Amino acid sequence: MTIATTHERGITTLTLDSPANRNALTARLVGELTEALGKCAHDGDVRAVVLTHTGSTFSAGADLKSPPNPYTFVGMLRQIVTLPKPVVARVAGHVRAGGLGLVGACDIAAASSDSDFAFTEVRIGVAPAVISLPLLPRMDPRAAGRYYLTGERFDAAEAARTGLLTLTADDVDTALAPLLDGLRRASPQGLAASKELVTARVLETFDRDAEDLVQRSASLFASSEAREGMTAFLERRDPAWVL
């Protein structure tokens, strides 16, 4: 199993548990996470979901050797957005590429102050296409422009400033405690109705742009430039276009 599940006082924690590949988004992990989220949606004992990780990396993004079907991945992101219960990202480490899509899809996202983030797609010849569905409606446009285009790393404080994160703190669990307590005090109906209000713009983006972005992503990944970028990444060298 790549997803570990625990439950305490109405909060179900889903842990990405594949540290050997830095919790890369494989077809298996995406499938198991989709199944776990589905169970949470229909479990009356679950008031909210926390999405976290083992190891020093929340997620390294799509696994280049065993990637998920793009439609399945988009479906999982949409599932997080439409789940009738809040989903909270708890990050204590590195987040790269598609992993940022998971963070962006969550309703609340918190990270330890030593966490860092990067949209690395541009450096292997592709683009953050499908993860734009939850991210662009929530992030500052100028910040998204910078980090999409440069692929540079940015820290948790900058991630919070740009809208990727809700909050950051030295101790992420201490910071999350009052938020989780607030969710426990909220009514299930109130949470579901309130979530519908705050996710409406994100869902509009899914409904309007999902098909176009899946096709755009597929075209990029099939290109000769992407093949060079992915080969260079796996061989731990610079791709041919680096100046």
UniProtKB/TrEMBL annotation:
Pfam families: ECH_1. InterPro entries: ClpP/crotonase-like_dom_sf, Enoyl-CoA_hydra/iso, Enoyl-CoA_hydra_C, Enoyl-CoA_Hydratase/Isomerase. It comes from the Bacteria. Belongs to the enoyl-CoA hydratase/isomerase family. This is Enoyl-CoA hydratase family protein.
